[in-house]
Amino acid sequence: MSLTTEQRDALGRELFEALRDCKTLAPLTERIPGIEIEDAYHISRAMLENRLAHSGEQVVGKKIGVTSKAVQDMLGVFQPDFGFLTTNMEVPNDSDVKIAGNLIQPRAEAEIAFLLKEDLHGPGVTEADVLRATECIMPCFEIVDSRIQNWKIKIQDTIADNASCGVFVLGNERIDPRGLDLPNLTVNVFKNGKPLSSGKGSAVQGNPLTAVAWLANTLGEFGIPFKAGEVILSGSLVPLESVVPGDAMHMELVGIGTCSIKFV
Q1: What is the mean pLDDT of the chain?
Q2: 193 lies in which domain range?
């Protein structure tokens, strides 16, 4: 059974208020057992519309989430989802991020970000189309966050909650991806100066280009294009790592560049 437009809009507003007030909600899938994935995407759009209308934000990109097996196993969610990136979500590289008043239950993940120079409209987008439309790739930390209590999420919960987006930080390096072996790019992640995890580009659907093409085609089914100038986050290459005030995260995308963020 699908939700009504009024129900979807009300839940989107509720998630926006939880984001604004840094509070959590009981899982939507427990409150509304019949909620469907299509409902969740509409709720996510309603949440986004509240952000744009009430917080003065603008969309600057999109993200794919829950792509790697490591992340799927951690969350118990076994298919990808997508979310929107906004102006308020980007923080400078090597900066301090205050958790109190901004984030609820943050977790860091290391990714490869794509900066587009051309629009892409799915369906029918291929890996070659993504490569042609990409200006450069960048190392990236996405700090995912959940407005759902204790990360107790099913796929409908995280989709509705804008794919559990928090903030993101891009490294300073801008590298042309043409000629690179993206599936074999290696990321090494450090927490508080100590090695934490490593992963490869192949962790996201076998190839980051495949993940970005999937996202373009999935969004295309909802009439949403990729636009030139947008940043696309292709999914975590490593398991998520919970962070608290005092933690410092650093990643090296080998041969590409680095990215750092500290939590206060």
Answers
A1: 93
A2: 60-263
